[in-house]
Amino acid sequence: MAKTKLVTFLDKNGNRSLVSVTVGTPLRDIFKHFRLNWNDQDQIIIGGPLNGYSIYTDAFPIRPDTDAILLQDKDDVALVSDYPCINCGDCIRVCPARVPVNMLIRFLEAGEYEEAAENYDLYSCLECGLCSYVCVSRIPIYQSIKLAKYELGRAATGEAADE
């Protein structure tokens, strides 16, 4: 028997719907159900706007851990930049774990993941995404933190050495 789950769907206009979907259903079927046009310049976010992740195909299936789908018009997509941190402190003020994000991001951008973990509370991060949301320099802080944790995990299990 196929497993179904409830998924929150937000379309380009901000309309919300709660949909019962069979796990494994491609997103294109949901788009067809709602009569939505999607093109490859629009953004599909799985998991929500703050800590979700982008996917780039409407063939992506609904997974057991999929809770929300956001379809964002290409004109509304916030672009990231490679502007340097200006030390405004917004990320620190908004961080519920009180991580010194402005210092942490410097080490993450340099690939110094061990230093970031030991001295700047990398593992204290709750991965809420608020730091990226408030960053005036548009630095992808949340994504850098996720990458650092992933790479440190790989190194700890020896995967990096096997490549």
Key words describing this protein structure:
Ubiquitin-like (UB roll); 33% helix; five-stranded mixed sheet; 2 domains; alpha+beta; 163 residues
Describe the structure.
The protein is α+β, with helices and mostly antiparallel strands. The chain has 2 domains: 4-76, Ubiquitin-like (UB roll) (Roll); 90-162, no CATH class. Helices cover 33% and strands 16% of the residues. The chain has 7 helices and 5 strands. It has helices at residues 27-33, 90-94, 101-109, 113-119, 130-134, 141-157, 159-162, and strands at 4-10, 16-22, 43-46, 53-55, 68-72. Strands 2-1-5-3-4 form a 5-stranded mixed beta sheet, with no helix packed on it. The termini are far apart. The mean pLDDT is 89.
Question: Which SSEs are present, and which pair or pack?
Answer:
Blueprint: E1 4-10, E2 16-22, H1 27-33, E3 43-46, E4 53-55, E5 68-72, H2 90-94, H3 101-109, H4 113-119, H5 130-134, H6 141-157, H7 159-162
Parallel strand pairs: 1-5
Antiparallel strand pairs: 1-2, 3-4, 3-5
**Largest sheet at a glance?**
5 strands, mixed
What do we call the CATH homologous superfamily of the largest domain?
A: Phosphatidylinositol 3-kinase Catalytic Subunit, Chain A, domain 1
CATH class of the largest domain: Alpha Beta
Under the CATH scheme, the architecture of the largest domain is Roll
Counting DSSP E segments of at least 2 residues, the number of strands comes to: 5
Radius of gyration, taken over Cα atoms and rounded to an integer in Å = 18 Å
Helical content class: 25-40%
Give the mean pLDDT: 89
